[in-house]
Design goal:
Elements lengths: L2 E4 L4 H9 L7 E5 L10 E4 L5 H8 L4 E4 L7 H22 L2 E6 L23 H18 L5 E5 L3 E2 L7 H11 L4 E4 L9 E2 H12 L7 E4 L9 H12 L5 E4 L1 H7 L4 H6 L15 H7 L6 H13 L1
Parallel strand pairs: 1-2, 1-4, 2-3, 4-5, 5-6, 6-10, 7-9, 8-11
Helix pairs in contact: 1-6, 2-3, 3-4, 5-7, 7-11
Protein name: NAD-dependent dehydratase
Pfam families: Epimerase (PF01370)
InterPro entries: Epimerase_deHydtase, Lipid_A_modif_metabolic_enz, NAD(P)-bd_dom_sf
Amino acid sequence: MKQTILGAGGAIGTELAKSLPAYTNEIRLVSRNPKKINPSDELFSADLSVKEQVEKAIEGSEIVYLTVGIDYNTKLWQKLWVPLVKNVIDACQKHNCKLVFFDNVYAIGGDNVNHITEDSPISPTSKKGEVRAEVDKLILSAIEKNKINAIIARAPDFFSEFKDRSLLMNLIYDNLAKGKKAQWFCNAKVVHTTGYAPDLAKGTAMLGNTPDAYNQIWNLPTDPQKITGEQWINLFAQEMNKSNQYQVLPGWGMKALGLFVPILKEMYEMRYQYDRDYYFDSNKFIRKFNYNPTDNKTAVKQTVDKLKK
């Protein structure tokens, strides 16, 4: 049973490839420059913005995981995400593949992030959120019209030793490692759930290989503990034997510095995830699979330990 990962080079794609051998020894890794994770992996180089290459990449697959990460730029998201997902849906329909979409929660905005469940309304309050809402609606519509069997597997921001796409690691770990103060956005005293990439990827594999999980939205497994930005900083500071001092960049500061620092310009519209409680509830998954997510303290320790090697 061939299972294919579109966007196999990132943190989630890599961890997902580590999890799939529990279900199959036919794993195809697709990206511009794929690299083997398991000895038997099949590598397939493709530009996923090209419809014909998407079709070739998934041909012969039973399950397709879409874990692509597009650079954190609103204009790029607006240009690339919707055509990509349309192409993947069409290709899955043509080749009769199941689809598992690794999603974020940007489609949920405002105070709806106070407690995010699978029933939280699609309510974007940012341009990037509007893009993700459109993508989600495309997949949900394809499910409703019986075009494909699919899962939307949602995750909050996440971290692991792959630091390049983890804001938590950039704000806390990188600064502490340089002997600087950790940083946070808006308010470090409010709850901010952050997922652990290995758990999220393992959960994605479990969902993909569970027939009755399809045609639903699932929140991937995270530690149910409610933890604040300040507590995240404390966990990393303890593991790294560093000072837990930190500085908070307020929303207006993000906007001002965004004139000079591109990532802050992109983050300004996402400040609603940092200026109020942002709690991601994965109880549906935990109950279904009787799964115990890695606790936050252990996840931080494992991540720091891996970076010491």
